[in-house]
Structures
1.
Amino acid sequence: MEKEKQAEVKLHGMWASDFSKRVELALKLKGIPYEYFEENLPNKSDDLLKYNPVHGKVPVLVHKGKPIVESLVILEYIDENWKTAPRLFPTDPYERARIRFWTKYIDDQLFKNLITAMRKQGEEQDKGMKEFAKNLDVLEEGIKEFYSCAKPAFDGESPIFLSITLIGILGPYKTFEKVAGVKLIHPEKNPFLTNLLHALSELPEVKECFPPAEKFATLMQHYKELSLQQSST
């Protein structure tokens, strides 16, 4: 019976994917049993291509044989389908809409800037860094009011959906800085985000879910070298 229950939820992911990790974190916080399938993205499984034929990307959540794709969509599905605590979204529709706005801002703006910083050099990297700094300032001012508690936690007092999205993209920022050779977040300029990211990174649920910094840095360095090789040919 337990095996049947676990088989109801399957997650196709990749150990270093920020987007996969946010789904893993949500499942663990909700206490939802699931079966995990690690994907080798250069050699994608038939199941991944079957469940996500449009993009062929991770993560893919399969619930009772039905696939759900795109991490933010999956997080909403999890919260709507499993209404147990902790709830990822606030109950008020207006507050949910505001949270959606900032999570989309993180994915659409800051993630794009991070990719530029990681995979470009010279003027292109400088331009990406300036955009990142500007967008980071906007984010800092925009999300402060959501964190009224002294210390963020995944207990319903903090905006969990926003925290999961934020830690997935910006949590490893020190690793990104090391690999890219640039300073992404300045504590004196963005003290709120610096403290928030540190507090979220220290939560046991995050430590359990996310990969070791050294292992992640090695892979990011590999991706950077591949990108630079491709751009020089």
2.
Amino acid sequence: MKNVFVETANVKAYHSALSALEERGAEEACIVVVDGAPGLGKTTTMKQHIAQTGSIYLRAKKEWQPKWMLNELLDELGVEKPRGIEQKYAKVVSELALRQQLAIQNRKIFTLVIDEFDHCSSRPAILETCRDISDMLELPTIFVGMGKVNDNLKRFPQVASRVSQKVRFDVMDKEDVRRLIDKRCEIRVADDLVTFVAKMSKGYNREVLEAIASIERFGFRIDVGEDGITMADMAGEKLMNDRASGTAIIVPEVL
């Protein structure tokens, strides 16, 4: 499978949100919430963003407390961890400020991305720590979750008021499924098989990538026609597992 990042409609929506963030009115409104079910490409999009901008990525933990979060942040920044929590906080702020200034000089956006934020989106201490850092530096902060973040933040208006952009990752349409297959699959895929992949995957990136891997494993063993590998070619072969039941989805000869 080709190691290529594919810009789907979800990715475009995320980039639009970042552009809008840079043009915000209230400087303290620095938070972006990215929500959506698992398997829609949120983490992949964030990692691409990190690679392009040099931003900082954290994965929230269920039992996070401010000291634990600050320690992980200092690890990601690659600096020595002071002993006291006040000193840890001050070190985080100073290091983030340095990275932010360097990004500004290079005309890049610098952000703090916290993935799996559902784990701590109802924890006042974590939310206040994130808000303090974001406010102090006017630092764009991205909360990435699986559907609960926006609802949880409603209980904390002092944080919710800082959210300037909300991006919801939705399932892909057939056009995006075709784009993902064309860009990442090593073998040409016929329209009927693309349609079947779109239908069976229900538009989830993770399932489409699983289907691509199956198509490649089969396709490398046969002579593929000019139109690409078809449903008839793969009839009887496993394409992917069903998300809900976990059972194998077998390719029929026709739709």
3.
Amino acid sequence: MKSSILFNRLLAPGIYQMAFSCADIARSASPGQFVHIKLNDSGHILRRPFSISNIIGDIVYIVYQVRGSGTLIISRLKSGDEIDVIGPLGRGFDISRTKNRALIVGGGLGIAPLLYLSRMLSNKSEVFLGYKDHLFLVEEFEHPIVSTETGISGYRGFVTDALKEYLESSPMADIIYACGPVGMLKAVKSISQHYGIPCQVSLEERMGCGIGACLVCSCKIKAEDGWHYMRVCADGPVFMADEVIFDD
């Protein structure tokens, strides 16, 4: 479907936030789902996947990092430009599992899809945000616990260290929701198992078709006979952490 860009602005070095108007996506999307955007460039055939960062009314927000020629083209789009977008796609977070309190843990660009989740859960969540150095979206969250590896803001160290310190004094939660680098997700999974708290993780993988046909984004999931592959784009991107097999 065609949508009009409202703005496409720089948040931090190499990181942008885009907002576009699309009532169909806004009304049906759930936290953790994503959209697929087509590039208006003959040299780029595949669409690019972007997590839905937030929804306000009929406006859909995404946050992305320029990592190659495709996202560089998208970063040059301006207010009023039209984009071809498909969505919402994938399986998002199960917010029905939160009865009293959820812990939301994000690292790097994985912070982006957790904004919509935190707003859906309102005052039922405690948010942990981890950055290497440059901050973005912090002001969009309500009273987040911020960690930076360089110590320029908040807790100095990894976001998982802040999570462990928090749980040592307050070890009760219905569930942990997490999105970020694989190393962070592995650590969050270990912490959740130690405290006996269920955990859902949103995986970040390269995608081709975005609908489960090409199998480019397969991940290993536990099964009765060992493990099997599942598609991050169609079966995920959100999975129960206990099911995911993270390669060493």
4.
Amino acid sequence: MKKKTLSSILTCVAVGAVGFSLMGASNPIEKLVKEKTGADVKIVKQVPLNQLKDMQVVILESGNQRVPFLADKNGTTLIGADSSFLTSNDNLLLTLQKTVQETDAYNNRSKSDKLLATIKQKNYPVVTLKSPAKTNKTLYIVSDPNCPYCQDELGRVEGHLRDKNVKMIVVGLLSEDSLYKASDLYSQIKTAQTNQAKINILRKIYSGNYQASGSQPSRDALGIAEAVRDSGITSVPYKFEVTE
């Protein structure tokens, strides 16, 4: 059977429960997923639900991705638990919301960790803007020059700098023209020494009427685009905050 990603498993089970008898299995939930989808998963957390008799919340992990489920105590039924889950029981809803938030935070962190590790290993450039405040917080923004939402986000950069440093990972993700613009940016920004000089270059290249000058994307622009895709980041702007 062809293996599926954990997100596709969630799609399969979110529309209804799947049942399977696994008498005597040491890990019935893991075996259930394996039997029904072909995917190898492990349980990283189980939370009994006092509000639902014989039910529990479980978090399953496959690779670097985690997804929450509702499961019966015997591990014979899994139901996808996501932000669309509705109940009149406030305590149950809070438990589920916290679990979804926990898995979302983990999944986002694994993407950002992988991206930063690749950038440091390959010594790819980032646009570093220093806050005037004394802070160890850094906001990373993965951004494409041709993305209108990224252009809007660039307009908020001075506000971010009031209390945190900003590092922009400019990526040619949306089109070939984006790769050319990212190449231009990394070439032009090498000599910029101040925040304002760097922001001026960013705004010039992010403007709708900027025409990229290169005929071949740079090694850095191509490498950063590959690193972003490999990390699992699929949309921009993508923001995450770290302490460094």
